[in-house]
Design a protein that fits this description.
Blueprint (H helix, E strand, L loop, with lengths): L14 H6 L7 E5 L10 H4 L11 H4 L7 H14 L4 H8 L8 H9 L5 E10 H10 L8 E5 L1 E3 L5 E3 L16 H14 L6 E6 L5 H4 L7 E4 L4 H11 L7 E2 L5 H13 L1
Parallel strand pairs: 1-2, 1-6, 2-3, 6-7, 7-8
Antiparallel strand pairs: 4-5
Helix pairs in contact: 6-11
Keywords: Hydrolase, Magnesium, Metal-binding
Organism: Chelonoidis abingdonii (Abingdon island giant tortoise)
GO molecular function: metal ion binding; phosphatase activity
């Protein structure tokens, strides 16, 4: 018996442990965005509920510059700290954030089928928020890795956030090129002897287009219905420059779950 499945039900092991334990390598890589994909809100704007009167001063709100979201959030976190907002209050607020319809069922299904799926998040949120939200819902063990902007609380109780990495992609925000993250992850897995037969990319936003354009014909792009990524992919088709991968539009995690069930049966 595969050690991954020993005993009653599935026992979660990180990917490296599963492979070392002699389990078959998962065939499929699932890549999720987080905001407006896994959760049905923007985690960075949800935290504003902690601010006095649940709003930011106009000067702060208007200080955002395109492509420099992380720097903007640093100023927001500094304002919250100056306003006396502390870690426990922020955590209570963040763990009330709603999951997107069907996403809890989908993550539960993935967690029970880790011998088929490796699963990662690539997000422009931050490590603290994603960690809080996933752990509160008991989904943290479904993920093999989370790639997002590193955040931590300072000795004085202020939340600080840094850029995830540096890159040279002109299409992406300064702090994060999701294509670079995905390609480096896939390369790392190849060096460990893991070659995915299919990459399934689930997202909603403009910053998900760059990694989607790197997908191959056997892969699947899953843009959320009515959101920016779906509109951009549609526009590319109209311009006779379609993405190479299959495209499956979704509005509920249940639709994604149904397709994953079909993939397992193939």
């Amino acid at each position: 018996e595969c050690p991954c499945l020993a005993g009653s039900g599935l026992r979660w092991l990180p990917a490296a442990s599963r492979h070392a334990a002699g389990c078959p390598s998962p065939s499929f890589l699932l890549v999720f965005d987080f905001d407006y994909t896994v959760i049905d809100e923007n985690s960075d704007t949800w935290i504003v509920k902690c601010a006095p009167e649940e709003k930011l001063p106009n000067k702060l709100r208007n200080s955002y510059q395109k492509g420099h979201w992380t720097e903007y959030m640093s100023r927001v976190f500094r304002y919250l700290g100056d306003s006396g907002v502390r870690e426990d209050e922020m955590k209570r607020t963040m763990t009330t954030i709603p999951f997107t319809s069907g996403m809890r069922d989908l993550l539960d299904f993935i967690g029970k089928n880790k011998d088929f799926f490796d699963c990662i998040i690539i997000s422009d949120s931050n490590t603290v928020f994603i960690d809080w939200i996933l752990k509160a819902a008991n989904f943290h063990e479904v993920l093999d890795e989370v790639f997002t902007n590193p955040a931590t609380f300072s000795g004085t109780g202020y939340l600080t956030v840094q850029n995830f990495h540096t890159h040279h992609c002109a299409k992406c925000p300064k702090n994060l090129c999701k294509r670079k993250v995905l390609e480096e992850f896939v390369d790392k897995k190849l060096q460990q002897g893991v070659k995915y037969t299919k990459i399934i990319y689930v997202g909603d936003g403009g910053n998900d287009l760059c990694p989607v354009t790197s997908l191959k014909k056997d892969d699947i792009a899953m843009p959320r219905q009515g959101y920016t990524l779906q509109k951009m992919i549609s526009q590319m088709s109209e311009d006779f420059d379609p993405v190479q991968s299959s495209v499956l539009v979704w509005s509920s995690g249940i639709e994604i779950l149904s397709h994953l069930k079909l993939l397992i049966k193939e």
